[in-house]
Amino acid sequence: MLTRSRHNSRRRTLPIALAVTLALALLLAACGSSSKSSASAGSGDGSSSTTLRLGYFPNVTHAPAIIGVQNGTFASKLGSNVKLELKTFNSGTEATTALISGAIDASFVGPNPAINAYQKTKGGIRIVAGTASGGAFLVVKQGITSAADLKGKKVATPQLGNTQDVALRTWLNDNGLHETKDGGDVTIVPEDNSVTLTAFESGAIDGAWVPEPWATRLVTEGGGKVLVDEKTLWPGGRFVTTVLMVKKSYLDAHQDVIENLIRGLSDSIDLIKSNPTQAQQLTGQGIDQVTGKPLKDSIIKSSFEHITFTLDPIATSLQKDADNAKTLGFLDSSDLSGIFDLSLLNKVLHENGQPAVSS
């Protein structure tokens, strides 16, 4: 009886042990599936924590970026799992240097700095969206009425080789004038825009090719006049002024983050169109907070009237910028194949019922 009892006990124990083993196996499988699912979601929809280090300028041509920061649109679209770290710059060189060194992941910049970054990194950045078009002018002293009148004069640009600097040099060449260091006729003075305003007021320079709001300030505060509105030099008056560029390595790793950033940018541009007064107020507040030098409401309003804020990076004008820069000796090559990745932008445009843009 004792032997039979032990035998029966073993028969009862084996199924229980087997059941426990099976249950544990199923539980482990479920945990493994859950972990895999969470990891997949984290890499695709922003559910895992990450950081976006974003650069922009306290300039009116960067208004959509400023608005996205000021009213919290960027933070809202990125979500609570993305830590947004902001850095501001005063020049394209500063921004691209920070990007190349790894100090930031993305930045709003002018087209020529983006081109330079693309070539210096050997394709390590991508332009994922446009931001602004237009808003650049050659403002001169009263009495100057043509290119010929600039012979022997000094004209400023924001920085050597930047977007407006290339535009001025190209325009001078097209009008038979050249920079004095090349045995030509005009002295070009690359300098900070705030210095340009003071120099123009004092008579140290005779003109400047600058973006907004500096062009308007040279007119209203410096008594200058517009000699060239750059949009008159482009087909349909469309040329890119500001783009959003991203490190390719970051874009590849965080598609969801950049997609949501573009959604925030789209919302900022929509606000400019639907409520320009509020958009201008937010822009003014953002510039004041960064620089400590508030702009007059009238300056911002006038600047907005000269700029078209758009998600379209206007690829054809970027190529022309590169061609001009190469002609002037700033680039060894004007090959921009691969500089654009507009897949996320076109996804956002499709969601909004808007037509796709082409690279």
- Please describe the biggest sheet, giving its number of strands, its sense, and whether it closes into a barrel: 6 strands, mixed
User: What's the rounded overall pLDDT mean?
Assistant: 88
The shape, in one word, is globular
State the order of secondary-structure elements, H for helix, E for strand.
HEHHEHEHEEEHEHEHEEHHHHEHH
How far apart lie the N and C ends? 88 Å
How many distinct beta strands? 11
Strand content: 15-25%
* Whole-number total of structural domains: 2
Helix count from the secondary structure assignment: 14
Low-confidence stretches at least 5 residues in length (pLDDT < 50)?
1-46
Side by side, the strands of the main sheet go 2-1-3-10-4-11
Q: CATH architecture of the largest domain, please?
A: 3-Layer(aba) Sandwich
Structural category: alpha/beta
Please give the CATH class of the largest domain: Alpha Beta
Short synopsis of the structure:
Helices cover 50% and strands 17% of the residues. By secondary structure, the protein is an alpha/beta fold.
Written overview of the protein:
This protein has 359 residues and is α/β, with parallel strands linked by helices. The protein folds into 2 domains: 50-134 and 238-351, Periplasmic binding protein-like II (D-Maltodextrin-Binding Protein, domain 2, 3-Layer(aba) Sandwich); 136-236, D-Maltodextrin-Binding Protein, domain 2, CATH 3.40.190. The chain has 14 helices and 11 strands. It has helices at residues 2-45, 63-70, 73-78, 92-101, 111-120, 163-174, 193-202, 214-220, 248-253, 255-274, 276-291, 297-306, 315-327, 343-351, and strands spanning 50-56, 82-88, 106-109, 125-134, 136-140, 154-157, 187-190, 207-211, 225-229, 240-247, 307-309. A 6-stranded mixed sheet has the order 2-1-3-10-4-11, with helices on both faces. A 5-stranded mixed sheet has the order 7-6-8-5-9, with helices on both faces. Helix 2 (63-70) packs across helix 11, helix 4 (92-101) runs parallel beside helix 5 (111-120) and helix 11 crosses helix 12.
